[in-house]
Write a structure and sequence with these properties.
By secondary structure, the protein is an alpha/beta fold. It has three domains: 80 residues, Winged helix-like DNA-binding domain superfamily/Winged helix DNA-binding domain (Arc Repressor Mutant, subunit A), CATH 1.10.10.10; 106 residues, D-Maltodextrin-Binding Protein, domain 2, CATH 3.40.190; 104 residues, 3-Layer(aba) Sandwich (D-Maltodextrin-Binding Protein, domain 2). The chain is built from nine helices and eleven strands. Strands 3, 4, 5, 6, 9, 10 and 11 form a seven-stranded mixed β-sheet that branches. Strands 1-2 form a two-stranded antiparallel ribbon. Helix 1 packs across helix 2. The protein is globular, with a radius of gyration of 22 Å.
Length: 299
């Protein structure tokens, strides 16, 4: 009989590609992870992973088992949800990981709604970049992620996750006051090809949006200044250090008096924000109201 906890370890190893990283995500020691993998191989009668100095790679048998693992773990999530519903578990804690703007825009308002509609649910919030929260959900560190689409991230058809779309928002161009396009109603991105750029670090989902938008406009942005803090990005633009693309919601309530904010001409670059849970957990009596409140807060 295959133990479910060992399937969870197999998926973590497949996601993180090294035993050490999987162990850290699962709060286990690397030796414990290796022992569980060995036990799983003995249970199945197949070698499931190839180990090398560069990390761990699933064998063909491991890939087959991983496909079933996703289905089994999703079904276990559904079983937990039904059992919780049977016992009328409407009081408990749900942990939500979200990037900072998402906390202000939807998570905070959702908490206010839940205080009225589901006062027995206690929500704990963790600030996490848009590309960090999905692995946290998969590793069971949090229950719900408010995340954004990014290159290399789990796709909308990923069988491990259930998504709830929340909102999509455009990026606006932020220019120094004296910029040659400061008086334009809309900014053609191609006209910024030779400007110095300010942007998030590689790995931040917003970095991917900025680079992709520039590539579609026919150039690679000349990134000279880097910050994941949009207030810092706007401050640098105000100082004349360069131009930037910033999500519209991140500019709300921000002092932009030293810069010019303009919409982008044509199809504006957009970030799409969604809530995600482990597949099968969406019907849990504690998680379902949280997803509903997030959707209502997003409008």
């Amino acid at each position: 009989m295959i133990e479910a906890r060992r399937l969870h370890i197999l998926r973590a190893v497949a996601d993180h590609r090294t035993v050490t990283a999987a162990a850290a995500a699962l709060y286990l020691t690397p030796s414990a992870v290796s022992q569980q993998l060995t036990a799983l191989e003995q249970e199945t009668g197949h070698r499931l992973v190839d180990r090398s100095a560069r990390g761990v790679r699933l064998t063909a048998a491991g890939e087959i088992l991983l496909t079933h693992t996703n289905a089994v773990l999703a079904q276990l999530e559904r079983a937990e949800a039904e059992l919780a519903a049977y016992s009328s578990g409407e009081a408990g804690t749900v942990t939500v990981a979200s990037f900072a703007t998402g906390i202000g825009l939807v998570v905070g308002p959702a908490l206010a709604r839940l205080a009225v509609s589901a006062p027995g649910i206690r929500v704990r919030v963790q600030d996490a970049e848009g590309d960090a929260s999905l692995p946290m959900v998969l590793d069971r560190q949090v229950d719900v992620a408010v995340a954004v689409e990014y290159r290399g991230g789990p796709g909308a058809d990923d069988p491990r996750l259930t998504r709830v779309p929340l909102y999509a928002e455009p990026f606006d161009a932020v220019l120094p006051l004296g910029h040659r396009l400061a008086d334009a109603d809309r900014v053609p991105l191609a006209e910024l090809a030779k400007d110095a750029w300010i942007g998030p670090f590689a790995g931040n989902p917003c970095h991917d949006v900025v680079v992709l938008a520039c590539e579609q406009a026919g150039f690679q942005p000349l990134l000279e200044h880097w910050s994941d803090d949009f207030r810092a990005v706007v401050a640098l633009a105000s100082a004349g250090a360069g131009v930037a693309l910033v999500p519209r919601s991140a500019l709300r309530g921000m002092d932009v008096s030293g810069a010019v904010v303009r919409p982008v001409e044509g199809a504006a670059p957009t970030r799409r924000v969604f809530a995600a849970v482990r597949c099968g957990a969406e019907e849990h009596p504690l998680i379902r109201p949280v997803l509903t409140a997030l959707g209502e807060a997003a409008g």
